[in-house]
C-alpha cells in the first residue's frame, strides 16, 4: 500500500535563488521566510550558513511567528582528502549542526566537494577518485556521521550532487555499499540524480532503507542534453535553466513519491529548484504552483 501521509513537504532558500550567505543578487532573508510561508510550506532548511540568522533565539522567533520549522542544515565537505582536512571540516560542521539542533532539526545534509569550479569550470582535481580516496571518503564520512549523531543528535544524509565524486548511479551505489547504513543515509536529490543519469525510483526500490531524506527537483531534458554536449559546469547549467519547475521536467515526481511512500517511514521531501541568480519576484509564484502540484500528487 502506498501512503504519502508520512512524507513532510518543505522548501529551501535554494528555491529562492539563495546560494551564498551574503549576495546582493539574493532576496533578503526576511522576504524568503515571508514568501516560503505564504506559498504554503511548513518546513525549511537553513540554506548556506549565515544567510538566515545564526542566533537560535532570533531565528526561532522569526520562524515561529510565520509557522515554520527547520528540517535540516547543510554543509559542503571534502572528506576524500582524508584526516588532514578533519579539523577545518569539523569547525564548519559544528556551527551548522549546533544551529540545526537548536532549531529542532533532525538532519544534516552533507554535500561532497566539487571536482571542478561550479562557476568557471576550472578543473580542481581529477573527477575520478583513487581507491585510497574512496577509502578516505567513506571512512571520514562515517566518522563525521558518528560525531554529528553523538554530539548533536542529527542524522547525516549524504547528497549526491552534479560535478562531485558522488554523482552517477555507479558512484552512489559504490558509496552506499562501502558505508555503514546505521551511520550514513542518503539525501536523494531527484534532479541531481537525473542530471547525472540516475533513476530515482530504481534507487529507492533498491536502497530504500538507506534513503533518509529527499530533495524534490526536476531537470529540463533539452537543456540537459545541451549542457552535456557543451560540458558545462553546474553553475552555468543552472543559469541556463537546467533545473525547471515541476511538472515540466524529469523525473516525474508522482512515481518518486509513490516509491518513497511505499517505504512507510517518516521522510522529509524538500523542494529545491536551483535558480541562481534569479529576479527577486520569480520564486514565489513558482513555489506556490509547485506546492499545489505536490498536493495534487497527494503530498
From TrEMBL:
<dbReference type="Pfam" id="PF01261">
    <property type="entry name" value="AP_endonuc_2"/>
</dbReference>
<dbReference type="InterPro" id="IPR013022">
    <property type="entry name" value="Xyl_isomerase-like_TIM-brl"/>
</dbReference>
<feature type="domain" description="Xylose isomerase-like TIM barrel">
    <location>
        <begin position="33"/>
        <end position="296"/>
    </location>
</feature>
<dbReference type="InterPro" id="IPR036237">
    <property type="entry name" value="Xyl_isomerase-like_sf"/>
</dbReference>
<dbReference type="InterPro" id="IPR050312">
    <property type="entry name" value="IolE/XylAMocC-like"/>
</dbReference>
<protein>
    <submittedName>
        <fullName>2-keto-myo-inositol dehydratase</fullName>
    </submittedName>
</protein>
Amino acid at each position: 500500500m502506498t501512503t504519502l501521509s508520512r512524507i513532510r513537504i518543505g522548501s529551501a532558500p535554494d528555491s529562492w535563488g539563495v546560494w551564498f550567505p551574503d549576495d546582493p543578487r539574493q532576496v533578503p532573508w526576511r522576504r524568503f521566510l515571508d514568501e516560503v510561508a505564504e506559498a504554503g510550506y511548513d518546513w525549511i532548511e537553513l540554506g548556506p550558513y549565515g544567510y538566515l540568522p545564526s542566533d537560535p533565539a532570533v531565528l526561532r522567533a522569526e520562524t515561529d511567528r510565520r509557522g515554520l520549522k527547520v528540517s535540516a542544515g547543510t554543509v559542503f565537505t571534502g572528506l576524500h582528502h582524508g584526516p588532514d582536512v578533519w579539523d577545518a571540516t569539523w569547525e564548519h560542521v559544528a556551527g551548522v549542526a549546533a544551529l540545526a539542533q537548536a532549531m529542532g532539526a533532525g538532519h544534516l545534509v552533507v554535500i561532497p566537494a566539487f571536482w571542478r569550479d561550479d562557476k568557471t569550470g576550472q578543473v580542481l582535481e581529477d573527477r575520478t577518485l583513487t581507491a585510497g580516496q574512496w577509502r578516505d571518503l567513506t571512512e571520514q564520512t562515517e566518522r563525521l556521521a558518528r560525531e554529528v549523531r553523538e554530539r548533536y543528535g542529527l542524522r547525516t544524509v549524504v547528497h549526491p550532487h552534479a560535478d562531485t565524486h558522488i554523482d552517477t548511479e555507479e558512484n552512489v551505489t559504490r558509496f552506499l555499499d562501502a558505508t555503514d547504513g546505521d551511520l550514513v543515509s542518503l539525501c536523494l536529490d531527484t534532479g541531481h540524480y537525473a542530471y547525472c543519469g540516475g533513476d530515482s525510483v530504481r534507487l529507492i526500490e533498491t536502497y530504500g532503507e538507506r534513503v533518509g531524506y529527499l530533495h524534490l527537483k526536476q531537470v529540463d531534458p533539452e537543456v540537459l542534453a545541451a549542457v552535456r554536449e557543451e560540458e558545462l559546469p553546474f553553475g552555468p547549467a543552472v543559469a541556463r535553466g537546467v533545473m525547471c519547475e515541476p511538472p515540466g521536467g524529469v523525473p516525474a515526481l508522482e512515481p518518486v513519491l509513490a516509491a518513497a511512500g511505499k517505504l512507510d517511514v517518516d521522510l522529509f521531501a524538500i523542494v529545491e529548484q536551483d535558480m541562481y541568480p534569479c529576479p527577486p519576484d520569480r520564486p514565489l509564484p513558482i513555489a506556490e504552483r509547485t506546492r499545489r502540484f505536490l498536493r495534487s500528487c497527494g503530498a
